[in-house]
Amino acid sequence: MKSKQIAKISIDFAMTILLLFLMARQLTGDSAHEWLGTGMFILWILHHILNVRWHGHLLKGKYTPLRAVHTAVNLLLFLSMAGNVISAVILSREVFAFFPISGGIALARPMHILCAFWGFVLMSLHLGLHWGMILGVFRKASGPISSRRVRTGLRLGGAAAAIYGLYAFIKNQFLSYMFLTSAFVFFDFERPLLLFFTEYIAVMGLFVFLAYYGTKVLQKLTGKRRKATGYEK
């Protein structure tokens, strides 16, 4: 594997871990939350530097349905991350406290909640859209799985995790934060830390599952359409 590819995967993995801790602000505390968020911002910049070619090709080539989905998710994720950074700077009491910003907190607080939860979902979808590539890396390292039973078991395990993720999505009131029907994030301090991370990883798994298999369905539909119109022989 090329060093650039290793760097990309390492940064994406680190961002995923940081994202989970950032969602646990009540557990980490405000100071740690700000520093973790700063780390996420730095990794986000590095991610875009390493993927600069993607930006250069935005207006080039033909847009298939799958490419349109990829682009839409990436652009929305960019907006949510930008909104997170802007609102975080306004709300900051430590890392960015030196900025001469007065006011704006009433708007920044709901904006931060909105962008955080949409960002979590969009980053999970982004991960799912690239899940095939991630699986390919593991296949190269460990070899393909030849047993049909094992493959079926893994798919069923993924489906079960996605179902649990849907339960956790509802239980943790994601929709109320994504559409700002709740002004504050409710946090159950009696819930064990392990359960918190298990539920949020499951929610992430739900959207990875939806994006990964949604991609497969879209590829099949696009392939059938091309054959029907005579583009493929």
Automatic annotation (TrEMBL):
Limits of the Flavinylation-associated cytochrome domain: 73-131
Pfam short name (any one): DUF4405
InterPro entries documented for this protein: DUF4405
Signal peptide: none
UniProt keyword annotations, A-Z: Membrane, Transmembrane, Transmembrane helix
Domain of life where this protein originates: Bacteria
Transmembrane stretches, start-end: 39-56, 68-91, 111-138, 159-187, 193-215
Key word Transmembrane present: yes
Entry keyword annotation includes Zinc-finger: no
The protein's name: DUF4405 domain-containing protein
